[in-house]
Amino acid sequence: MTFTKEWWIAVLNRTIRTMAQTALGIIGGSLLVSEVDWMTVLSATALAGILCVLMALAGLPETEAIKQIQEQRAVNATNKNKTIAKNKLGEIK
Higher model confidence: residue 4 or residue 37? Predict the structure, then answer.
């Protein structure tokens, strides 16, 4: 696995979303804001973020999709360049 810029962006995006969901779930479990145990929210949110990053080491589907899109774009660009070259050769003849 390579730690590309795309991988880090995907991990950051996923981690922030996971941490926000964890915090909202714990806060939402309280009837009043004054009843929220903020240390529990903080520790559970931090743990969720750490676990999310560790799970990302196993692989991220987002980065695989980005890789496939980039490969397809490269193939399309190559095909386009071949078509342009053939058209130019046709004009020369």
Answer: 37
- Identity of the residue numbered 87: N
pLDDT above 60: residue 78:
yes
Cβ neighbour number for residue 55 with a 10 Å cutoff: 14
Is the pTM higher than 0.85? The answer reads no
**Cα→Cα distances 11→31, 55, 60, 76, 80, Å:** 32, 10, 8, 28, 34
What one-character DSSP code corresponds to residue 58? T
Structural domain harbouring 18: 5-92
State the total domains in the chain: 1
Average pLDDT in the 6-23 region?
93
Asked if 50 and 14 count as a contact pair (C-beta separation under 8 A), the reply is no
Under a CB-based contact definition with an 8 Å cutoff, are residues 6 and 66 in contact? Answer: yes
